[in-house]
């Protein structure tokens, strides 16, 4: 069950409020409409706290924990990288995570509805929906790749173990021969795993301008992915909450098994030492700190709507602060642990081939679908380890996808409550639309489109959304009012450190990330193939479509305003219907607000009296 606090003010007399919040100013005006009762009656809650925790962990712990963090850590100073990484976790990641859990849990609405804190920024909620829509389309294709690999395991030998296959070219050289003949990755030669992925799995074309036809086996895998996603979300959190017991837990078991196997391999510790050996001089590099902040940000997933949406199904009294520590720490610990799994096997690959660890170490799809499979092919019982690895990748991606889709669906239904009784149909239609949109990425040139949207569509948009969120909470609604809401909800008041982070540290880091992402952005390439200018323009367009929702909604609000633009802006920066969903909690909250306002007025009178007496 969700935890409750016996000392919670909602369960005690009104004077308990005034004693605790003697120094707080009154909150912005709120309006409790009839719609809030409908929110509570029909929206539902998690079956248990465990379901919420596992859903968040499954959402946060994704494929990027395996294919990006280990390489980023090694490239950015090894063990020394943990210094900026952990600092960014506690100064930016956890404060954002806590803030979004509170926003969702307090209001019981999704990523659009929470902007009732400052309706002028509601366009950011629509931006989140668009970003999730685009990213879910291409991410579904990414998790179709492991299914394709699994389908290729039904043979006596792994098909990427040598160069004796129909798809291999004259450039294919087996790993052991690379060392003997002193080749490098820049010599025009390719490993069997590289050619298997690109020429058999993807059947890749020459560029984005040559889409070619559908890769039918990959298309069937994509159908399987969307069917499994639909089954997982068919009844919303009722099915999601049960599925995550497997999809969120089993990957940890596989990761541990792969770790045990990895550290027993010859050369494993060579790879691990390469991973963790600190280079303290790298801490002087500003890019290392920027990479740490960006990795924390995109790993935990604030700004995507998933955290807000999952928290919106929480029990109102759930201990959000405790969750906000446990989930991010589990996520970061998993990333660090995954580095040991990856680099132990890369050390083995280096030991067997004679190629330096620095040469075999890669990140992204190259690690997951080329380098690691190549190392697995050299192990005893390679089919077993390949099956475990690709099942893990599939499950890591699956629970991230269905949380993103649930965020889209719940947010739309919150805005159009009449759709709630047709949620099953809305879910089916949403899945079909996203499936159709993702088909273009299983063509022969689909990998180029996938990489294009992955490169441009989300990074800048999501950071901007988080900047607006933290400004809205800390500066417009007011950090003291937000802290007061937290105290009302969980009976524990966040300390001065939280206040300082929300108001100063976290927004400064986010603004720095925003400008860093723009300034250091470079044109995309894939496998050395340069994208044409029109494709890069299309990538930026996918980014601008979501960002444009923010000023577009502001303009729409000003046009519809019945007063002067300045008065409309002031009105739209005031919280509207920012109350708990249930009628009982809402009545308690209104009484709580009256007590705070009375206390504030009494304090003002007292201050004025003291000032007059001194005169």
Automatic annotation (TrEMBL):
Na(+) binds at residues 58, 60-61, 65, 299, 331, 396, 399-400. Belongs to the sodium:neurotransmitter symporter (SNF) (TC 2.A.22) family. It comes from Zeugodacus cucurbitae. This is Transporter. Keywords: Disulfide bond, Membrane, Metal-binding, Sodium, Symport, Transmembrane, Transmembrane helix, Transport. The gene is slc6a9_2. Coiled coil: none annotated. GO terms for cellular component: plasma membrane. It is found in: Membrane. GO terms for molecular function: amino acid:sodium symporter activity; metal ion binding. Disulfide bonds join 163-172.
